[in-house]
């Protein structure tokens, strides 16, 4: 009997080990087994020591204390509002004195950031709720600083609702679909400058500044809409419909933009005078702390010059107080990395003036006072300025390009603190007065840990540790992510990671799938939590690797911008050398290497199969750019200039012009309703492949946009790609 018990005890660990599960496509695309919980939806209140959240099935807005996490009040409860016209809340915003709340329902997405919704205003003291306008369907509704008015856009025109009197004034009259837009950006501004609101209240609530977009001369792009499902377009059940929108392609006509200021008391609208001797963008407007002084952030069309203009809204005259030029281009993130100090004499700017992205202090005359951060590393995100403590908060890749830390530096540059404590990837969200911050941390083996800290970095409490996920992961066979570096034939060190097959045997040779994105300033080689398709493939016997090529982020301006004027050339060269490096490893089968990617990554996959001279046996390109002439003006010209100036850069590095050199098996996948990378890219590429006699495979998703999702779509996509690899690799 004792021998039997001993035998069972010895065999039990083996039995348990054998029972470990492998990652399935259902885990990744249906049950989302490995998605880490997070803490989101917290809105800091003005005092910086309280926050609000949506609770009780989005029927309550509840107030909490940062320090204790205890509930202190319920500031809105739909069940206690008499004759409440709404059943739930999708989003909300408090006014400055926190006496009113702007809530919305029936959100309908338009593009990446924009949406329409039905807005309501709730008076906290009176417990009264009223619709913002008749029939709803508003955009970017925004309280005035004094909380007495709400500006919003409807049908491309701007309206102001004076809450106290219950009256609404229409500020613009010329708004029209696909012609004129007021107060919200056009498609290309929204997509490439990453915002959805182009109007701002003055600090004294007396003026409303807005950008006017005349897109009447911009050419339209049209794609068909079928009935489909998830969602279903019933109107197109028998005859397909179509969607038309203004999309300026590289080198084509952009919207004409102008900046206007409406004065509420005088009921006058004035146009600010901006030098229009060359084409320009106005991607942001922002009020200074001085009434009647509006900052206009301007870029030339080539985006290699940034000008900070200050407009006198009474005289309409503008003065250029600061210019930043680059021999390459100015990164778009400078637009949100600007703070005017309360003293009215200085501003903070983040830029690459010394070859790395750093924080600077300037006078309002544009004179540099001092550089606040310095070193051979990049500031990755600017969080803001604490005027009381005179401290600036930011995220940087100081320790390594593959990691992120949170820091604080004093305005005089003499003090610097590291606020995050753990090595890996950290990010922070600060309360309104920077008294507290929530830190989001993970590494390759640790799911997201969300913690609350004071402004000195001291841990107050853990909000989410994802221990349940950590325990769940132990039931699975997970292949660890291993980081590596290698040096190319051009002497460039590249960073990568690999996930080896489960039950890896160094004496065997395995098929390799390279995953990548490779786009400008992107990064996929990061020390952060992610269990994705690579773990399913590892269970199926593949080695999966990822390499960040030249042009990617966190390694300084020269590394990031060396791809200027020739997008795709150096990146594909590096991916090909990465494949050759992997093929030289004793456990990788150099005859069975595949590459795949989405969007820019799809562009890379197609390029590599034409340039790789047989290095790749298989390539999968999802929603790929195949000719930069087909892509939008803002993004493409930022990195390539206009095709009229750089035809060789465009043509030499587009897969559509390399079709005759294609080797290996190529699988093209695209959605027909992709408003971003148009289906045109794939269809025109297909024609070139056909005419050069190249065989390939292709799959099309009806009505799917650039993200290709909805219903069972993602499950279908990854099942199909997995089966394709098994068949061809």
UniProtKB/TrEMBL annotation:
Record-annotated Peptidase S9 prolyl oligopeptidase catalytic domain positions: 533-729
Q: Does the keyword section mention Cell cycle?
A: no
Any coiled-coil regions, as ranges: none
PROSITE patterns per the record?
Answer: PRO_ENDOPEP_SER
Q: Which GO terms describe its biological process?
A: proteolysis
Which Gene3D superfamilies does this UniProt record tie to the protein? alpha/beta hydrolase, Dipeptidylpeptidase IV, N-terminal domain
Which keywords accompany this UniProt record? Glycoprotein, Hydrolase, Protease
Organism of provenance: Saccharicrinis fermentans DSM 9555 = JCM 21142
**SUPFAM superfamilies, per this entry?**
alpha/beta-Hydrolases (SSF53474), DPP6 N-terminal domain-like (SSF82171)
Q: Which residues form the Dipeptidylpeptidase IV N-terminal domain?
A: 96-447
In terms of PANTHER family, this protein maps to:
DIPEPTIDYL PEPTIDASE 9, PROTEASE FAMILY S9B,C DIPEPTIDYL-PEPTIDASE IV-RELATED
Name of the protein this chain belongs to: Prolyl tripeptidyl peptidase
Q: Name one GO molecular function term.
A: dipeptidyl-peptidase activity
């Amino acid at each position: 009997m004792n021998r039997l018990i001993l035998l069972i005890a010895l065999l039990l660990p083996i039995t348990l080990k054998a029972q470990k599960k492998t990652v399935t496509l259902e885990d990744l695309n249906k049950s989302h087994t490995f998605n880490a919980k997070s803490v989101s939806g917290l809105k800091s209140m003005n005092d910086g020591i309280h926050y609000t959240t949506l609770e009780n099935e989005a029927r309550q807005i509840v107030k909490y204390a940062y320090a204790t996490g205890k509930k202190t009040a319920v500031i809105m409860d739909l069940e206690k509002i008499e004759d409440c016209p709404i059943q739930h809340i999708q989003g909300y915003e408090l006014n400055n004195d926190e006496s009113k709340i702007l809530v919305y329902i029936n959100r309908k997405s338009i593009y990446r950031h924009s949406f329409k919704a039905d807005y309501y205003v709730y008076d906290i003291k009176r417990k009264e709720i009223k619709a913002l306008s008749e029939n709803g369907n508003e955009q970017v509704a925004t309280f005035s600083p004094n909380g007495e008015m709400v500006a919003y856009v409807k049908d491309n025109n701007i309206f102001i609702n004076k809450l106290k009197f219950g009256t609404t004034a229409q500020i613009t009259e010329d708004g029209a679909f696909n012609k004129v837009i007021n107060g919200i950006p056009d498609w290309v501004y929204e997509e490439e400058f990453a915002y959805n609101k182009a109007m701002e209240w003055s600090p004294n609530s007396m003026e409303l500044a807005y950008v006017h977009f005349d897109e009447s001369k911009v050419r339209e792009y049209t794609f068909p809409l079928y009935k489909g499902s998830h969602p279903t377009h019933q109107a197109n059940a028998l005859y397909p419909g179509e969607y038309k929108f203004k999309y300026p392609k590289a080198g084509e006509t952009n919207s004409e933009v102008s900046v206007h200021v409406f004065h509420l008391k005088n009921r006058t609208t004035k146009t600010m005078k901006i030098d229009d001797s060359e084409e320009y963008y106005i991607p942001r407007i922002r009020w200074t702390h001085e009434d009647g002084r509006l900052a206009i952030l301007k870029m030339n069309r080539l985006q290699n010059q940034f000008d900070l203009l200050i407009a006198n809204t009474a005289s309409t005259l503008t003065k250029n107080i600061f210019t930043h030029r680059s021999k390459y281009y100015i990164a778009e993130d400078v637009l949100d990395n600007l703070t005017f100090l309360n003293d009215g004499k200085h501003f903070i700017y983040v830029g690459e003036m010394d070859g790395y992205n750093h924080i600077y202090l300037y006078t309002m005359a544009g004179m540099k006072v001092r550089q606040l951060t310095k070193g051979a590393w990049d500031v990755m995100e600017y969080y803001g300025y604490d005027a009381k403590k005179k401290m600036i908060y930011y995220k940087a890749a100081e320790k390594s390009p593959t990691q992120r830390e949170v820091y604080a530096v004093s305005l005089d540059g003499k003090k610097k603190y590291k606020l995050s404590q753990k090595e890996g990837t950290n990010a922070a969200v600060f309360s309104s007065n920077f008294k507290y911050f929530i830190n989001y941390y993970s590494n390759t083996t640790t799911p997201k840990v969300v913690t609350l800290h004071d402004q000195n970095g001291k841990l107050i409490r853990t909000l989410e540790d994802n221990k349940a996920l950590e325990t769940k992961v132990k039931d699975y066979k997970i292949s660890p992510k291993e980081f590596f570096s290698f040096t190319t034939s051009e002497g460039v060190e590249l960073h990568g990671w690999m996930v080896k097959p489960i039950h890896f045997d160094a004496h065997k040779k395995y098929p390799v799938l390279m995953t990548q994105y490779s786009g400008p300033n992107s990064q996929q080689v990061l020390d952060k939590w992610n269990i994705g398709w690579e773990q399913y493939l590892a269970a199926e016997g593949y080695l999966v690797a990822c390499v960040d090529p030249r042009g990617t982020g966190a390694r300084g301006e020269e590394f990031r911008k060396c791809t200027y004027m020739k997008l795709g050339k150096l990146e594909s060269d590096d991916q090909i050398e990465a494949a050759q490096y992997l093929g030289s490893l004793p456990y990788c089968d150099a005859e069975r290497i595949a590459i795949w990617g989405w969007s820019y990554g799809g562009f890379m996959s197609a390029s590599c199969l034409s340039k790789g001279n047989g290095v790749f046996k298989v390539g999968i390109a999802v929603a790929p750019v195949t000719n930069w002439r087909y892509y939008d003006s803002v993004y493409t010209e930022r990195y390539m200039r206009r095709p009229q100036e750089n035809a060789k850069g465009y043509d030499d590095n587009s897969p559509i012009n390399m079709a005759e050199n294609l080797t290996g098996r190529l699988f093209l996948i695209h959605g027909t309703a992709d408003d971003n990378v148009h289906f045109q890219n794939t269809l025109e590429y297909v024609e070139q492949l056909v005419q050069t006699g190249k065989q390939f495979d292709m799959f099309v998703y009806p009505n799917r946009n650039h993200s290709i999702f909805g219903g069972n779509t993602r499950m279908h996509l990854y099942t199909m790609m997995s089966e394709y690899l098994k068949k061809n690799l």
